[in-house]
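Ticket reopened. Same input as before:
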Amino acid sequence: MEIRVNPTRMELSKLKKRIVVARRGHKLLKDKQDELVKKFIDMVKENKRLREEVEKELSQAFGHFVMARTLMSDQVLEESLMYPVGKMDIKVARRNVMSVRIPDIETVSVGKEDREKEKSPFAYGFAGTSGELDDSISILSGILPKLLKLAELEKGCRLMAIEIEKTRRRVNALEYVMIPSMSEKIKYITMKLDENERGNVTRLMKVKDMMMEKGV
Amino acid sequence: MYRVGVIGDRDTVLAFKALGVDIFPVISPEEAKKALRAMAREKYAVIFVTEQVSVQIEDMIGEYENEVLPAIIPIPNNQGSLGIGLKRIRESVERAIGVDIFFEREGEEN
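Engineering reply: fixed in the latest deploy. New output:
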């Protein structure tokens, strides 16, 4: 590696300060990375479990829904779904996990009070509709909170993954490029300075000898 | 206050209508892209996209990857899962840790 640096004391003390900072930064980033990975693994495990669960239940709900669609006329089906019980609204806060901002989703359905009073997700009369539709809707309304939780987790996991990747790159750059090159430079400067010092001493001795010879 | 939306084929998203979730039935990828862009601009925090559609508009979903919101989440449609959701989780793991240790271990257990 080519070293382009002035072999001066100024440069040396500057480099020595910088390498201390780099080492401390490296240690901090490494700690951050370790902690992020630990949190990420917990999260991703939960994410995987939840996704498998949700996918299973969703396919169940869709199965019922397809049956309902075949049993009922399009018109009646759309009519019964046209006016939902409440409007789905959510509140999103931002949680800070090791300086990664991940969403924190909370449900606030409008018309929730009505629903809780009636304890029913159905917005239609039972007379004209098929039982399959009821099954499908009740399963779906049961998994909706899970779906939102899944959304929160999955987004969080992806953001964490991006952050971990970034941190890892920084750690590696410090560990394998910055710190070695700086210590190399420090070594070069100290050797150069020592060499100059030795050169100086021999020169002085030589001059002294020459003066002695002349008998001054 | 944020909202929740679903993009997908009509037969699948209709079921969500009853829950008060906004639905956007689409047929072509262009329609899906348009819907997604419009939703991202408005206050949609969570957008569920059926896997079949999400494959077709992957590039656009990628654009929102780095944003905190909206969270775009693939869900299976009424014909079953394509495994895209799980693939995405696996991708995150690979990205973060470098290797797919997590799913490999699970595989060995089975």
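Residues 57 and 104 of chain B are 29 Å apart (CA to CA). The first helix of chain B runs from residue 10 to 17. Please confirm and we'll close it.
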